[in-house]
Amino acid sequence: MGFTISGTIKREDNGQGIAGLSVEAFDADLFADDLLGTTQTDDHGAFAIKYQGKNELGDKPDIYLKIKNIKGELLQSTRNHIIYDVIKDIVIDVPISGPALAKADMVLQDKASIAKGSGTDSKSGLFRKLKIPPACISAKLSLQSFKQPDS
Question: Which InterPro entries match (predicted)?
Fold first, then answer.
């Protein structure tokens, strides 16, 4: 038995995928949850974890995800929304909202992937502390990636 757990991690406010986050898939159990696999989100916030199974009769994991930043801090968990008795490929899309993104560094790039500005997220999850050169203010910018500050 084997299947793939896939999906996207996106900002809830604007639907942009979030790159570079750790996604861990777990089998929820009564006493101790089992890690099924881990991966990183790509440039669009997409991820895929292949699970090969234990080849045991009745191996139908009850799946939830933990989403972490590059420092290993938990941003979101789907533990309260477990998908029970999984036996085939599933898609789990996880929105990340304001407070979970607080203090994240971000980089703004144009469509040619040229950096146009950077900044630090506010506690509310709204990007208010941007450093964008005046010449770029009218340019179309898209959020491309997040990374935690080094401090």
Answer: Transthyretin-like_sf
Look up the CATH number of domain 3-96: 2.60.40.1120
Question: Residues of the chain with pLDDT > 90: what percent?
Answer: 42
Higher pLDDT, 144 or 96: 96
Question: Where along the chain do its domains lie?
Answer: 3-96, 99-147
Q: Pairing mode, if any, of strands 63-68 and 74-77?
A: antiparallel
The sign one gets for the Cα dihedral 78, 79, 85, 86 is: positive
Tokens 């469509």 correspond to what residue?
111
